[in-house]
Amino acid sequence: MMKMLKAFVLIGMMLGLPKAFAQDASQDTVAIPLNPAIIHKTLPNGFSYYIQKNALPKDQIQFRMVIKAGSILETEQQRGFAHFLEHMAFNGSKHFPENQLVDYLQSIGVEFGSDLNAYTGYDETVYMLPLPNSKKETLDNGFYMLGDILNGLNLTTEDIDKERSIIHEEWRTTIGLSQRLKDAMYPLLYQGSRYLDRRPIGLMSVVMGKGNEEGIRQFYKDWYRPDLATLVVVGDLNPAEIEKRIIATFGPMTNPSPEKERKYYGVPDHDNTLVKIIQDKEITSTSIKVIHKYPKHEEKTLKDLRRSVVNLLYTYMVNQRLSDVAQSPNAPYMYAQSYSTSASGNKNRYISLATVKADKIIDGTKGLMRELQRIKQYGFTQAELDRKKEILRKDFESMALEENKQTSAQLTALITNHVISGEECSTLSFKKKFVDECLKTISLSDVQSLVEEFMHGEQANRVVLLTAPASATTPSKADLLTALDQVQKEKVTPFKDTVVDAPLMTTTPKGGEIAKEVYDKDLDVTHLTFANGVTVDLKPTEFKNNEIRFTSVRNGGYSKAAADNFDNASMAATFTNLGGLSNFSSMQLDRILSAKQVYLAPYIHRYTEGVSGFSSKEDFETLMKLTYLTYTAPRKDPAKFKQFIDNKKEYNRNSLNDPDSYFADQINKEMSQHDPRTETLLTPEQLDRLSLDKSFDFYKSRFNSAKGAHFIIVGSFDVNTIKPLLTTYLGGLPAGPVDASFNDEGIRPPKKGMSFDYPRNTVDKSKVVIRYTGDFPASQKDRVEMGLLGDILTIRLNQKLREEIGGVYSPYAAANVFKYPYTHYRMDIFFTCASANRDALVNAAVGQIKEMQKGISATNLDKVKKAALKDRKASLQMNGYWRKLLEDQWSRGESKVNFEQYNKDIQSVTAKDLQKMARKYLKANKHLEFTLSPNPEAIKK
Question: Which helix (H) or strand (E) is 304 found in, with range?
Fold first, then answer.
C-alpha cells in the first residue's frame, strides 16, 4: 500500500559520465558523453541528425523532425504562423497533395493524432512520425514526408484558407479558465519579455485574416531551413541505409540567402516582488505560489551533472518534509510542493506552492514558507539524506536494469529533449554508475548550497501568485508580502524526523497448499488453485527485466452494501488505506517502504474488489507481505479520517464551479436516471454523515476472506522461485464464507433518445457528447466489430466535421463494451465547437452514422484493421496489457481460444458486418445528447 510513486522527480534530470567519476577539478571541464550507440553528424548545410538502432518494437521506426523555430520568431503581423505551418505540413506538399499524406499513413496503420502528430512551442516546432514497418516503400514515403516538411510544402492560398477555421476551433478548445489564468500570470512570469506576446496558438485576428498567406510563406522561407533542423531516427533499422537516405534527402537543400539571424530571447530581471491575486468563478481551490526566477544551469560537464544529482536529493527531501506536515493534525495547508523547473528563455523557476483552505490563506502561506525556512535555518538531517540516497540509488539501479528493454519511442524522446533543451543523453548504465559514485561524496553541505540558492528570500525576481474562487475572501497584496517577510524573520524549531526501525511483519503466516496446478503452454500461463479458494494466474515475461505487475479481482464491490450505507461503502478502501497497516501509520509505513520498489493499494469498485500494485523482483516478497496485511491487518486512523473529511469538504465545495466537472457529474446522474447510489461529488453535508466505523466494517466484510479472489501476476519472475512465497502469503490468506457475487442494482440509462443542455461555460464554447448505449452480445467478435466501427466513425468525423466543414478541431468516437452489471455497449462521439454551429455539427455527426448504415468504405475498414493489428502486436509486449487481458479473460469466463482467435476476428470483419452493426446499435433518434454550452449572461459580462 502505500509507497507513492517517485517517477516525476527523475524525469529530465538524467545523467551521463566518462571513465572517471571522482569529484575533482576535472569535472568542471569534462563533457557529458553522448550514448555511443547514437550516430550524430551535421551536414555541410547545417542539417543535423541522430540515428540509433533499437529493435524494440521489432520492425518499427520512430522519426522526430525538430525545427528550432517557434512562435518567438514571429513578427507582429505573423502571430500564429509558426503554429499555422505545423498544420500545413499535413495539408499538401510536393509528394502528398491535399490530404493524401494522412490517407497514406492511415493505410499502413498509422493513426492521425495518436501516432502522427506535431506541436509548436515558443522556440521549436516538432513533427512526430512513427512507421509501423521498415519496408522500402514505407521508408521512401517517410523520407518524402520529412523532406517535404523542410522544403516542399505547397502552401496554396486555397489550402491555407481552408485550414484557418480548424486552427480557430483548436484555439476554442483552449479558451476559458486556462486562458484567463495565463492572461493573469504571464505578465508577471514573463515581464518585459518577448515571450509574453508570442504564445504558440497565436492571435485569432491574424490566423483568420484572409489575404495574409504571403506572411505564412515568408515565415516558412525564413525559418524552415537546414541549419535550424535536426532529424532523430530510432528503431529497427540499418544505420548505414538511414544515413544514406538522410544525406540524399537533406544534403542538397540550401539555406536562404540572405539568411535571417536566429535570435534567442531572454526574460529580464526585476528588482521587486510581483504579486497577483487571481479570483475566478471557475477556480475550484485556493493555492499560493511563490516563484523565484534564476539563471538556467546548462548540463554540459560532470560538474553540472553532479549538481543535478544533488538537486534530485534535495527535491526528494524538501517534498518529504512538506508531505509530512500535510499529514499532521491541524496542518496549515492541505498539499504542498517545492521544486525547480525549466522555463522558456534564459531563466528557470524555483516554485513553492501550497493548496490551502479559503479561510486560512495567510496561515497556509506562512505554513508553507515556515517549513522552507526551517530547512534554511537548520538544513536536513543525516538520516534524511541517507534515506534519500538509498532511494535514489535504488531508482537508478532499477532503471539501469531496463537498459536493453527501452522502446524506440522512449529513446527518441530522450534524444529529442537533448536536441531541444540540451539534456544529457547518455546510457542508463553510465547514469547508474555516475550516481553511485556521486552518492559516496555528496554531503549535507552540498545540499545546503542548493537550499541557499533556492530559498534566499530576496525580493528581486520573485513572483507571488494567489488563485482562489470568486467567493473567497482574500488578503491584500500587502498582507501576502508581510506574511512572507514575517516568516523570514521567525526563529523556528528544528525538524523532528519520523524514524521507524521495525520489520513489516514479525511472524510468517502458516501458509496453505496448492490444490491444483495447470500449465497453459500456448499462453505460457500457470494457473494455481489454493486450498483456501484463492486462484492465481502467473505469466512470466521478458518485456522488462525488473517489473512485476500485480492485481486481484473478485465480484462483489460496494454493490453488496445496503442503500443507506452506499457512501460509506464506496469510500471504504480509501479510508482504510489512509490508516496504514498492522501497527504502522501510513507515514510510518512510508518510511519502511521508502527505499523499496513496491506499491500496493486495495480497491472496492461498484461490482468488484481486490488489490492492485507492482514491485521489482527484489521486493516481491514485500509485495506479498503487503497483500497479506491488507487482508488480515487493516488499520483505521480517526485523525487521518477527520483530516481527509475536512480537506475533502474544501475540495468539493467549489468543484462543481468547474464547468467540465459539473458536466461530467450531470452526465453521470442522467446515465443512472438519478439513482441515489450514483457516484457523484459529495456535498459537505454528505461528507459530515460519513462514518469511519461503518466504512471500516464494510471493508472488513469484503476483505476478511480471500475466498474466490483471483490474483494475476505478470512480469520478470520465475514461477518456481516465487511459488513458495505465493503458498505462504496468498495460500495463507483467510478463507471464511463470503458472497463472491455482485448485486445488479438495476441502474440503467434512459431507453429513449433525450437531449440535455447545461449552460455553464463563460466563453463561446460548446462541448458535445452524443451517446448510443444498450444491451450488447458478450462475444469477442462483437466487441471487435464495435471497436472497429468506432474507429471508422472517428475517421469519418474528421473528414466531415474537421476537414470539410471546418467546424471542429479534433472530433472522435470511442466504443466500449462493459461486462458489469450486464453486457452493454457505449458509442460516444465527442467534439467542441462554437455554440452557433452546435446543431449543424450534431446533425452532420449523426449524418455520418446514417452514411455508415448505407455502407462501409472498404478503404476505411482496411485502415482501422491495420491500426488495430498494429496496436495489438505492440500491446502484447507490455506487462500491463497482459495483466488487464488476463483479468478480462477471467471476468468474462473466456479461455485461450479467444486469445488465439483475436487477430482472426479482426481480419474476418467485413464491411457488411459493420453496416449491420451500425443499423442495429446506432439507431436514429435513440441517442442521448449532452451539451455543455455557454451561459448567455456570463458571455455578456
Answer: helix 302-326
CA distance linking residue 929 with residue 843, whole number of Å = 11
Q: Rounded to two decimals, what is the model's pTM?
A: 0.94
Q: How many residues does the structure list for the chain?
A: 941
pLDDT confidence of residue 14: 38
Q: Do the beta carbons of residue 640 and residue 327 sit within 8 Å?
A: yes
How far is 737 from 783, CA to CA, in rounded Å?
A: 35
Strand partners, 668: none
- The pLDDT tens digits of the residues spanning 29-49 come to 899 999 999 999 999 999 999
| Average pLDDT score over the chain | 95
Reduce the secondary structure of 447-507 to three states and give it as a string: HHHHHHHHCCCCCCCEEEEEEEECCCCCCCHHHHHHHHHHHHHCCCCCCCCCCCCCCCCCC
Which grid cell sits at 919? 443499423
Can you give the pLDDT at residue 26? 60
What is the Cα–Cα distance from 106 to 867, expressed in whole angstroms?
A: 8
Burial class (CB in 10 A: 0-12, 13-18, 19+), 405: middle
C-alpha to C-alpha distances, 621 to 313, 617, 714, nearest whole angstrom: 27, 8, 15
pLDDT tens for each residue of 267-314: 999 999 999 999 999 999 999 999 999 999 888 999 999 999 999 999
Query: What was the pLDDT predicted at 19?
Result: 34
Question: What is the structure's pLDDT at 941?
Answer: 61
Could you give the angle at the alpha carbon of 122 between the alpha carbons of 8 and 352, nearest 5°? 40
C-alpha cell at 456: 534566499
β-pairing verdict for 608-615 and 598-604: antiparallel
DSSP state of 116: B
Element (H, E) at 53: strand 48-53
Query: How many other C-beta atoms can be found within 10 angstroms of the C-beta atom of residue 425?
Result: 22
